[in-house]
Amino acid sequence: MTSLDPIVLFFILGLSAGLLRSELRLPSAVYDLVSMVLLLAIGMKGGIELAKQPLIVLLPQMFWVMLMGLILPLLAYPVLRYVGHFKREDAASIAAHYGSVSVATYAVAVVYFASQQISFEAHMPLLLAVLEIPAILVGIVLARGLRSKMPLGALAHEVFLGKGIVLLVGGLLIGWIAGPQGIQSIAPLFFDLFYGILALFLLEMGLITAAQFGSLRRYGLFLILFGIGMPLVSAWIGIAFGYAMGFSVGGTAMLAILAASASYIAVPAAMRISVPQANPALSLAAALGVSFPFNVLVGIPLYYTFAVWTYSLLGAPR
Amino acid sequence: MTSLDPIVLFFILGLSAGLLRSELRLPSAVYDLVSMVLLLAIGMKGGIELAKQPLIVLLPQMFWVMLMGLILPLLAYPVLRYVGHFKREDAASIAAHYGSVSVATYAVAVVYFASQQISFEAHMPLLLAVLEIPAILVGIVLARGLRSKMPLGALAHEVFLGKGIVLLVGGLLIGWIAGPQGIQSIAPLFFDLFYGILALFLLEMGLITAAQFGSLRRYGLFLILFGIGMPLVSAWIGIAFGYAMGFSVGGTAMLAILAASASYIAVPAAMRISVPQANPALSLAAALGVSFPFNVLVGIPLYYTFAVWTYSLLGAPR
Amino acid sequence: MTSLDPIVLFFILGLSAGLLRSELRLPSAVYDLVSMVLLLAIGMKGGIELAKQPLIVLLPQMFWVMLMGLILPLLAYPVLRYVGHFKREDAASIAAHYGSVSVATYAVAVVYFASQQISFEAHMPLLLAVLEIPAILVGIVLARGLRSKMPLGALAHEVFLGKGIVLLVGGLLIGWIAGPQGIQSIAPLFFDLFYGILALFLLEMGLITAAQFGSLRRYGLFLILFGIGMPLVSAWIGIAFGYAMGFSVGGTAMLAILAASASYIAVPAAMRISVPQANPALSLAAALGVSFPFNVLVGIPLYYTFAVWTYSLLGAPR
Amino acid sequence: MSPCTRKLLTIITEAALENVLLKDLDRLGAQGYTLSDARGKGHRGIRSSAWDASSNIRVEVVCNEVTAEAITAHLQANYYNDYAMILFVSDVTVLRPEKF
Amino acid sequence: MSPCTRKLLTIITEAALENVLLKDLDRLGAQGYTLSDARGKGHRGIRSSAWDASSNIRVEVVCNEVTAEAITAHLQANYYNDYAMILFVSDVTVLRPEKF
Amino acid sequence: MSPCTRKLLTIITEAALENVLLKDLDRLGAQGYTLSDARGKGHRGIRSSAWDASSNIRVEVVCNEVTAEAITAHLQANYYNDYAMILFVSDVTVLRPEKF
Ligand SMILES: Nc1ncnc2c1ncn2[C@@H]1O[C@H](COP(=O)(O)O)[C@@H](O)[C@H]1O
Ligand SMILES: Nc1ncnc2c1ncn2[C@@H]1O[C@H](COP(=O)(O)O)[C@@H](O)[C@H]1O
Ligand SMILES: Nc1ncnc2c1ncn2[C@@H]1O[C@H](COP(=O)(O)O)[C@@H](O)[C@H]1O
Ligand code: NA
Ligand code: NA
Ligand code: NA
Fold first, then answer.
1. Rounded Cα–Cα distance for residues B172 and B50 (Å)
2. Distance F41 CA to ligand 3 centre (A)
3. F99 lies in a domain?
4. Could you tell me if residue D98 is inside a domain?
5. Interface pTM (ipTM) of the complex?
6. What are C130-171's pLDDT values in tens digits?
7. Nearest bound ligand to CA D13?
8. What is the pLDDT of residue A250?
């Protein structure tokens, strides 16, 4: 991402303030407000697009994307377990984080694509929501085995009724039902302020990221390498899926970005309850301490370049 | 209200999330911020209108509306006491809630009227502020008798200096003094974002409403019937007053909506201090658990239809 | 300031609510959010201007302004110590508050200048940031003597990495790097809403100011006289510096306002840690209880008038 | 300034009672108090702190035994029946006993 | 309504555990509980409360000795190894002992 | 893992002191601490938590007696005169005493 975008500068400000141990600290109520508005806005943006096309057309895409969300953690797990020598639960939990997605990374990508006038499939937020969940299930099975007697009800509750999913899917439904006309009255808050609110959110994300660096130092080099390497690999998988599904270059790049991003909202909460033996500091250090800044500062334009290469090499799909 | 309006969809989202016991929970600081902006905005909207006409003209209206605020709880009390068999203090407290008004219901009605291009007397927020208080006094007298030795100072403090009244009346005064020109600089926050902020508020209201359903189940059918029946009756009284005062159809409908709405900010706080024997769960279950959703989802367009009937039957007033 | 400006009316509303002991209280998270947005916005406004001119040109100005920040507390100290008979630490701490600046006062002045279409040097936020700090150092030396063995690291940390400075300077840098084009996407939040957010902030400031009146009553008349007299003197010093630096009338008036304003964010925090023997109630009572309302209600237009007189008497500088 | 024993009174009750309660504490001889916001569950159901009417406060008062008993008796007489409220007392050691 | 002794159990743990923990408390016989948000530091590092994953909660339960022991044993068996959690118990005097 | 007695130190003081105080606690041997925001009233007047300069924090430290005394002495020597601060100590039973 062009490092001059003010959105990214806010992230860097937060990161620097955190690393310099400044007094700057946002109250958690502000974090909650800001992330709530972002999730609803992203959901509604996607929902408006859903209103324009029959949902049935999107079912195959949802299926393929779900498949991608199952494959990514299965790919990450052996690396973490056998190269990184993490214990089973930790490997499974980290894998789940990387199979799922980061809404903040998506939001920054949306800003980047807008500034570069790259268009992409506008129902992407639907795929974002779909991608949140499968990796969680894979992570749990990897950690506990298939025969584990997890109370399924509690798990489904945790997964489908977590704050992030409810707001994202709620936004999708509201956008879908209300449509572009209906949503206009609330556009000043949710759409006009989107960039500004994202800036505040990234300021906070910078502070949170800085707080992960301590664990990073403790858990060492492998986590850093994984936190950069895994997104690079995932991005190519995302490109493969996007190409196979006949997406535009922009859409393919966006899917690559989703694949490369690592969750830090839905997955940590679900893993903490369903795989308590996993050390949450490890996954957050990797996802927030390494992959999030890497994706935001370097990855987003890079994955787009990957997608452009692919399309110029192979031609537009089908 | 047209169930497609996104404002109402946010309420339904909150309600569903609450009923499904989702993790979604807004910090109370967000609730405070959002309700503060709404109260100030509604006050200022009314204040701007006050600047356009001599206040003396409005004094009779304020008097009549105050009278309405005295009549409504006196009507509700015997029903609650002798049909519902509530103990004296509970009947008095519930009656006070229904004699007063709900700012959130008013805000949703404003949105509905705007979407339907129905005009109404623009100084309505003044009447809203006036209506908040008389029912509280009636409720206290009903509960404690006229000879009770309530410390009047403490009561006046509670009633006139509660958060809601201060912000609403403060907004009125600011709008009145600054006038439409003066207020322009702050319009982007208070007026352009009004719908969006109302949406967030209704999301939270949905969650709060869902939390009342537990008490509803406990206190049974009568409360549900009362929570629907009382607004229906009150609406007609509001229409009678509006018609008698020579209001437009829109203004009459709005007065009906105010009459039908039940307070959940000013009255609970005042009752808790001055009639502590009343169980607050009862009034909130009725006001928030039944009447608020009923008014928002069904009542607002219904009462408007009532007003239209009345005007087409009886002709415009005077 | 024209007492009709709604911004100021919000301050008066907060002040009245506080003095009447209303229930109105803003959660500290709202205070944090609102002040964060203001500081970032002011910083960015200044930063955008920095992008337009070589920084080297501003270095002399920064030097002179820093000098002013050293002189003001040295002037205030003997008055406080020998006329006011405050103990050494208290005199030093109060002096530091008056040598530094109040961002809220600056923000109100910006609104006033805009409404009166008075232009001023647009890099003023840079000077604002520069002015925050020197007085703190003077205050510490006055209180502890030059030979005191204050841990310099901890002090520098407190001074340069306090919340206010980080946000203001961070905003400056973001504005500078991103430039007017880059910042456009976040303008709806930070610039369009500026007045509205300032209104909320001043509402809270009114409540906080009211809370200082208790200490004022206790510490008596001298503090009130000082809280009015010191700004009047400082304003003339600001005018002298502005004139000497060749500023426009508006810029000179703004420098006078900065000089007259007294800090209540950066300085209290730094003094509390580095001069703990000073009673913080004294400085806050003077700075917030007297000088802030005086400057906002009376001082801002007054100092502008002073500047106009000066320029018409002496002619434009150089 | 040798250490000394005092009572720590903890009151958990509805936020609506805050103003009244703090005035009572002042009047009954408490030299100070500390408040924080809380949520919880008791005989009067769940109090979730989502908004004013369902918020709790948690008040702590360090005081001598006489004051503790006066406060306890006053609360029991005036609020215990009508408000969501619990109260418990424990022994604490304080410095500067003259403060409490 | 003479005063009576009970146990005050204070649990400080990760906010992620809130729902599960409160259900457990209900099941193990606690008549009520009080929660507030907290931050802190312990063997599992700094928990800053900046956002959900790093928030702590502070839960207080007033109960009789048997319940206190049941809760303690349950927490120790189920959560102590995997979660940031501490637990301490003190004696408190309560009014209306039948409530706890 | 039999239960064992420790001291619970509660410090209520100005939020401005947070950073300095936490560093001191670390240095004086506290194995952990828990913080929450608070407001209150004491000899230095009302601290309303409306904004930074008037906020209180409430810090709890569970530790052994020696550490408790060290912290108490340090706070009394360094902050008691200049800051709004109170401190009280009580006995608590903990599990896993090796943690504290
Ligand atoms: N056994 C308990 N332990 C801890 N807190 C309690 C207990 N019972 C009640 N509370 C708290 O006290 C408040 C009022 O209690 P109650 O009057 O029983 O509804 C509840 O909302 C809880 O926050
Ligand atoms: N010695 C202690 N005193 C007070 N609080 C503690 C202590 N140790 C841990 N805590 C709190 O308990 C939480 C979990 O502790 P731990 O499991 O040791 O990481 C920490 O985040 C602190 O809030
Ligand atoms: N007797 C008391 N009981 C409970 N908290 C107190 C008491 N005295 C003081 N405090 C708290 O300690 C803070 C500082 O006390 P002080 O130094 O006396 O002003 C106050 O703001 C209160 O939050
Ligand atoms: Na991913
Ligand atoms: Na009504
Ligand atoms: Na100054």
1. 8
2. 5
3. no
4. no
5. 0.95
6. 999 999 999 999 998 877 676 777 778 878 888 899 999 999
7. 1
8. 97
